[in-house]
Amino acid sequence: QVQLVESGGGLVQPGGSLRLSCAVSGDSLDYYGIGWFRQAPGKEREEREGISCISSNDRGTYYADSVKGRFTISRDNAKNTVYLQINDLKPEDTAVYYCAADRFGTQEMCFMPTSYFQIWGQGTQVTVSS
Fold it and tell me: Quick one: which of 89, 119, 100 has its CA closest to 19?
């Protein structure tokens, strides 16, 4: 059974950086597209925003307009881990960040509803505040 564990969140000042990790266990990351979604304060699970996704073959990535140019997604299949480098953090980036897995998924998974995914991590909190 595939499991995802996010880490790397924290409290940072505006303009700061973090690197989030999504560690995959129970199967090889090679077979999975991975998406990063975030749930802002006061929003429901169904309102999670797909902000960055990477295809299983590592040939496609997607970034939401709100994070383009500041966030970078990458994968290290040898470590079974996907990373999200987030720079120039803004208060509106405050959210719980989740990763989701889709077997043979593409970067288009960012457009899928939360109900589509069966595999989620527990989330990591990112708070941007001075």
Answer: 89
Query: Kind of pairing, strands 61-63 and 49-54?
Result: antiparallel
pLDDT value at 58 more than 90: no
Which residues have a Cβ under 8 Å from the Cβ of 104 and sit 6 or more positions away? 31, 32, 33, 56
**Amino acid identity at 21:** S
pLDDT, tens only, 74-122: 999 999 999 999 999 999 999 999 999 999 999 999 999 999 999 999 9
Q: What is the 3-state secondary structure (H, E, C) of the chain?
A: CCEEEEECCEEECCCCCEEEEEEEECCCHHHEEEEEEEECCCCCHHHCEEEEEECCCCCCEEECCCCCCCEEEEEEHHHCEEEEEECCCCHHHCEEEEEEEEECCCHHHHHCCHHHCCEECCCEEEEECC
